[in-house]
Amino acid sequence: PLVLGIETSCDETGVALVRGDELLVDAVASSMEEHARYGGIIPEVASRAHLEAMIPTIQKALGEADVDLSEVDAIAVTAGPGLVGPLTIGASAAKALSIGLNKPLYGVNHVIGHACVDQLVDGPLPERAMALVVSGGHSSLLLVQDIATDVVELGSTLDDAAGEAFDKVGRLLGLPYPGGPHIDRLAREGDPTAIRFPRGLTAAKDQAKHAYDFSFSGLKTAVARWVEARTDAGEEIPVNDVAASFAEAVADVLTAKTIAACHRNGVDTLVIGGGFSANSQLREMAAKRCAEAGIDLRIPPIRYCTDNGAMIAALGSAVVRAGVAPSALDIPVDSSMPLTTVTV
Ligand code: ATP
Ligand code: MG
Ligand code: FE
């Protein structure tokens, strides 16, 4: 079946067409440049941008793939989690298409889409796989027993997402927004062992309840204190070493917990998705530790890791093929959709 996927959970308007596990086209429009002026995403600005970009992006996707709307067999759309205004705009477009074309509608989970998109690149996931989804809004560890029907949330961040922590540390180091890529670049010139920053939720006392949860706000505060103390003492800040030591702490926690979860669940395939998977320190450490642990590591190219329509069309395609019932036409969007809910 040919599935048209629509993604509008945050600041990217994404529209893609997927047939089976084959991606025909992935069109995306972003309002990030507008948000950069404010140093963060303004939901109202994002909503208006989605409204303006939606129809042109649908037309662009259809045109590039040389597909007529009448050929589409099903519509998939992000139902959550995400910003409620932006989600509503994507859902409204998807409902209109579903009604107009008389084709089934599937409201799907954005975070699970970040894991599913890998199937378009690396082929079908094995029966059980681990997925680490890390972005500006999410840091979650999912046990994927069946991408269309059975996903277990092993853990998530209790406070900041990994990308968010990078952006906050970027701000305190005076870097432009978003700070993540800048810290990555500076960290490559620094010594990751220069400063021992804390690893959140790794202490023995946290193992019972939070073995697979993450916490990055304590780390961010530790970096702020360290920088403040040096500044107060009139010392120069070794920015590269701070960036490298901070990035090392984040990568260490993410990879250690994820690999422990793979071992304890007898899983030997790991997918990393979400925009933060661009981070070189995470990529390097994950590659090294997965190789040592005999885990097959799959990270799709970065354009599929940031928010896009392909991830939603991919999950829609998997769900259709699994024979899951379509969503009701009045699908509710859910800003905090549970990560165990694949479709609504
Ligand atoms: P979501 O809705 O999935 O949370 P998002 O727009 O918040 O999406 P993405 O666009 O997927 O997130 O990723 C952007 C985040 O990743 C930002 O926080 C950004 O700073 C961070 N990031 C991107 N590249 C890097 C990098 N190389 N190193 C560190 N952080 C990065
Ligand atoms: Mg984004
Ligand atoms: Fe996302």
TrEMBL record:
CDD domains: ASKHA_NBD_TsaD_bac. Fe cation binds at residues 110, 114, 307. Its cofactor is Fe(2+). Residues 23-313 form the Gcp-like domain. One of its GO terms (molecular function) is tRNA N(6)-L-threonylcarbamoyladenine synthase activity. Required for the formation of a threonylcarbamoyl group on adenosine at position 37 (t(6)A37) in tRNAs that read codons beginning with adenine. Is involved in the transfer of the threonylcarbamoyl moiety of threonylcarbamoyl-AMP (TC-AMP) to the N6 group of A37, together with TsaE and TsaB. TsaD likely plays a direct catalytic role in this reaction. This is tRNA N6-adenosine threonylcarbamoyltransferase. It comes from Promicromonospora citrea. The lineage of its organism: Bacteria, Bacillati, Actinomycetota, Actinomycetes, Micrococcales. The gene is tsaD.
